[in-house]
Specification:
Distance between the termini: 33 Å
Structural class: alpha+beta
CATH topology: Creatine Amidinohydrolase
Number of strands: 15
Strand order of the largest sheet: 8-7-9-14-15
Bound molecules: magnesium ion
Largest sheet: 5 strands, antiparallel
Strand content: 25-35%
CATH architecture: Alpha-Beta Complex
Radius of gyration: 17 Å
Shape: globular
């Protein structure tokens, strides 16, 4: 079982700053998502914001990843690499961003639709966001990891979405990925008890079809095996005496 890392108030202050920069990046990229823009163009918007804020991009160079954000389109679930691909009307665009402020990490993701989403896509995006919020709401002192996982799973099942299982939420702090794992489904293990100071990234990835995924030949891009659409929402949060605090927010 993972060791419980409890962050101090001062550490959480630094993570809140990193998280705020991530939230600002996601908002700036959302603003920039328009037909005709390349995914590399979105990455440039993100990098410029991170550097102007005095932070460092945590994704760039992470195990060789070449960009500051992941841009995953339609059946791509996560880890899409920005490049020459052009944004088009009717695409489902998932953006994942990370920033480091004075050694502390923030990690967040959101899914956008270019245009007005059809009903099923709206359900996918809304269900994924609600699943994240339900998981966060369960991140209170005294609960266990399994309570967070179960809360995410219940919303996903209610919304009739597939749950991608190989990728899970994680502890976060001085490293982007710390030991703690937060599955988006019940595992049958309660996991650690949540106590004030525990910081984690909760990140449901849901699909409109099968939950099976595979990795493309670029070694990064994760896609649904049946080409169904996917969505991804993520927040970095801190468990506090007053309940969960979302750190990736402005
Ligand atoms: Mg993450």
């Amino acid at each position: 079982m993972a060791t419980v890392v409890r962050r101090s108030r001062e550490e959480i202050d630094l993570m809140r700053r990193a998280g705020r920069i991530v939230a600002e990046v996601l908002a700036a990229v959302e603003e920039a998502i328009k037909p005709g823009v390349t995914t590399a163009g979105l990455d440039a918007v993100a990098e410029s914001h991170i550097r102007k804020a005095g932070a460092r991009p945590s994704f760039k160079g992470y195990r060789g990843f070449p960009a500051c954000i992941c841009v995953s389109i339609d059946s791509e679930v996560v880890h899409g690499i920005p490049g020459k691909r052009v944004i088009e009307e009717g695409q489902v665009i998932s953006i994942d961003a990370g920033a480091i402020w004075r050694g502390y990490h923030g990690d967040g993701a959101r899914t956008f639709y270019v245009g007005t989403p059809p009903k099923d896509v709206d359900r996918l995006i809304r269900t994924t966001r609600l699943a994240l919020m339900a998981g966060i709401a369960a991140a209170v002192p005294g609960n266990h990891i399994e309570d967070v996982s179960g809360a995410v799973e219940d919303v996903a099942v209610e919304g009739e979405c597939g749950i991608v299982r190989p990728y899970v939420g994680h502890g976060i702090g001085t490293r982007m990925h710390e030991d703690l794992q937060i599955p988006n489904y019940r595992t049958g293990n309660r996991g650690i008890e949540l106590v004030p100071g525990v910081c984690m990234a909760i990140e449901p990835m849901l699909t409109l079809g099968s939950a099976d995924v595979e990795t493309l030949g670029d070694g990064w891009t994760v896609v649904t095996a049946d080409h169904s659409l996917a969505a991804h929402f993520e927040h970095t949060i801190a468990v506090t005496d007053n309940g969960p605090e979302i750190l990736t927010t402005v």
